[in-house]
Design a protein that fits this description.
The complex is a heterotrimer of chains A (287), B (294) and C (251). Chain A has 11 helices and no strands. Chain A is mostly helical. Chain A has one domain: MetI-like (MetI-like fold), CATH 1.10.3720. The longest helix of chain A is centred in the N-terminal third of the chain and has 40 residues. The N terminus of chain A is likely disordered. Chain B is α/β, with parallel strands linked by helices. Chain B has 2 domains: 143 residues, Periplasmic binding protein-like II (D-Maltodextrin-Binding Protein, domain 2), CATH 3.40.190; 91 residues, 3-Layer(aba) Sandwich (D-Maltodextrin-Binding Protein, domain 2), CATH 3.40.190. In chain B, the strands form 4 sheets. Chain B has a 5-stranded mixed β-sheet. Chain B has a 3-stranded parallel β-sheet with strand order 2-1-3, covered by helices on one side. A two-stranded antiparallel ribbon of chain B has the order 4-12. Chain C is an alpha/beta fold and 251 residues long. Chain C has a single domain, classed as Rossmann fold (3-Layer(aba) Sandwich). In chain C, the strands form 2 sheets. In chain C, strands 6-7-8-3-9-10 form a 6-stranded mixed β-sheet, with helices on both faces. Chain C has a 4-stranded antiparallel β-sheet with strand order 2-1-4-5, with helices on one face. In chain C, a hairpin with a 2-residue loop joins strand 9 and strand 10. In chain C, helix 3 crosses helix 4, helix 3 runs parallel beside helix 5 and helix 5 packs parallel to helix 6. The longest helix of chain C has 16 residues. The mean pLDDT of chain C is 92. Classes of the chains: A mainly alpha (287), B alpha/beta (294), C alpha/beta (251). Chains in contact: A-B, A-C.
Amino acid sequence: MSADAETGRGDRGDRRSRILGDLRGTRNIGIAVTSTVVFFVVVAVVIANSAGWPEVRKAFFDRKLFGDSFPEVGHAFLLNIRIFCIAEALILVFALAIAVLRGLPGPVLFPFRLLAVLYTDLFRGIPTILVIYILGFGAPALQLSGVPNSPLFWGVTALVLVYSAYVAEVYRAGIESVHPSQEAAARSLGLSRAQTLRYVIVPQAVRRVIPPLLNDFIGLQKDSALVALIGPIEAFRQSQIDVAATFNYTPYMATALLFILLTIPLARLTDWLIARDRRRQSAGGAR
Amino acid sequence: MRLKPILLLGATALLALVASGCGGGSKKSAAPKSSGCSVDQLNLVHKGQLTVGTDNPAFPPWFGGTPPKGSTWKVSDPNSGQGFESAVAYAVAGKLGFKKGDVHWVVVPFEQSFKPGSKSFDFDINQISYTPARAKSVDFSDSYYDVNQALIGLKGTPITSAKTSADVKKYKLGVQIGTTSYAYVTKNIKPSQQPSVYNTSSDVNSGLKAHQIDGIVVDLPTAFYITAVQIPQATIVGQFPTVGTPEHFGMVLAKGNSLTSCVDKALASLKSAGTIAKIQQEWLSNKASAPVLK
Amino acid sequence: MRARATALKLEAVHKSFGSVEVLRGVDLEVGEHEVVCLIGASGSGKSTLLRCVNLLERIDAGRIFLHGEEITRRDVDVNAVRRRVGIVFQAFNLFPHMTVLRNVTLATSRVLHKPRAEAEAEATALLERFGLADKRAEYPDRLSGGQQQRVAIVRALAMQPELMLLDEVTSALDPELVAEVLNVIRELADGGMTMVIATHEMSFARDTANRVCFLDAGRILEQGPAEEIFTHPREPRTQQFLERIIAAGRL
């Protein structure tokens, strides 16, 4: 008796991409191609025939300005990359700590649970932009010795605080989705609570929450532009400067393109990670 | 059954085409280029009235007066005719043949002053500097004020002892987005640290108060207002010398608007009559008192 | 038979979940190398009893001793007790994100702190013994239910427990996979492993158990040698239960 038949998942072998859907047979492919072409041609024609198009094209799609601003904006984008790389690394750790804190059992640890709940409620509730303003202008104004007043530091801190609140909830959902019998199995082998979390619960939880986690990180990448509010010149701010200098919006398109270029590989990477995990666990041995 | 979605798509497409065709047909016909500048010949947003834009809040010394209760205007009231830009706007309006009551003010944030499509104002007066690049997207009137950039620092901080442009290089400077102050900083001061750029003038001020920046670069009249009212613990370190062509403020109009030449005519006659100089004397008189950072 | 040393002893164990009293004073003694089967209807408390012995559930009253040492005291090191008591669950509960080998070595390397090479060599030997050597690099999802349950048994055995608790380990299996698991358990019994087994497999219980305990409504109603319980049950409830089992064709 094969494992497939037993678990009732015989279709495992031909699981298809969600985007491509059920594209079997030339007929279906033909229909898909026709429908795609028709759709995009129509959209293009509608836009190109609109009354304001010549003006919009000049204001948003100026080839020369694009070429002029792209290197500048691209250089400033390095700052965005730095911002969210640092933030993401910190968030991954900090949010996990919050999620674990929230799941701690026992009445003695109630204050910690309460703190974790208050934290997530607070920072999910306040708009990111406000947290950046408050920390960016408020914290350094206190003039405490040893506390840095670099806007970059406070911008990243604000992003970490806000996004950790979201990511902690994602982690928590992941942890709670791991069946209690897994914990029982681990504890029954003599593993401590911490070991159980580390080797059994969290690895499974993280695998399950990779898609929503990545979703939050894409949001974070975009929100790295908010740090500009308190001074640093990142890609969005640089394009804003260029826009203000030329009264033409094309530099914004350059920035938009950069953000998209970064997001797409990340999204595909997640898809790949998920697929690899599924393959490893169900479609064959490792190594 | 399988083809149904395609048919539907086709139908939607057709509908959209027709709709867009209609839109194209009703396209606003270009305003006739008239050389005459009498009120009934002007190309206006609203017939018979002059619609003037500026940002809200409107700050002294460019605008003055206290907004009445319930007004959308904050800090200053452009309708008051007080403050340099408000006074200039009413003077120009008068020259064009409008009565004071025919002038209507609308809020126009900086970034909206140059957005494509129809404008909500006849002209926008908001300390906007002329540059050739900007003039490709909008019309600028001739100068109504020649600008000098100035430096503000907190009293007692090292930056306040700067005597020359070169002395300023080592400090962290802050500017407002959209101002030519940024261009002045990067082109002429060339500081060793990247300047901080903020969304609004209030944010720049917050940056200074939070010690995130050592100094603010801003046009001189605004510098006087900031140090007098907004950050009393700050002081004007000095004004920067003009480099190359003098920077000037111009009113912003829609590209190719026939009104531009009429506004220019009005400005020219106001200048030759000494009216602009008088208004400047009245609202921006303390200009001379700031030392020049050579 | 009564002469052997006591491996496990339960004294008046009570356990409630909310208002439902699942164990209502259970007394049980298991000798070393003895195999005790717990039989009884679903909900009679068999699983709870095993989970209490493993300290996965905290008992409300009574005491439990492991080789004479009370393990239900509040100050006892729970993890240390669990190292000595292996348990295998109905639903296998293998760790799906680990290979078979890692499943088996996790506790030996992390809890017993055995060097990796030693842990893996031992695990491999055990897997070989139970015919799973070729599956060591597979993930659990790729194995049949019978194979998974055998891995779960190996995982528990790797800790070299003094006592094994088996909680209806064949109930989730297709009938044709039951035998391979039962054979493993028989082998363990033959090897002298002390075991407490909750099961519905009556013929297995009759063949393997030194003693059979019939649980009814949270109490051990009747216990004795397998032959005696199955052929001459004294209690009417036991008789009823066995009649139903026979009617269902499971004995």
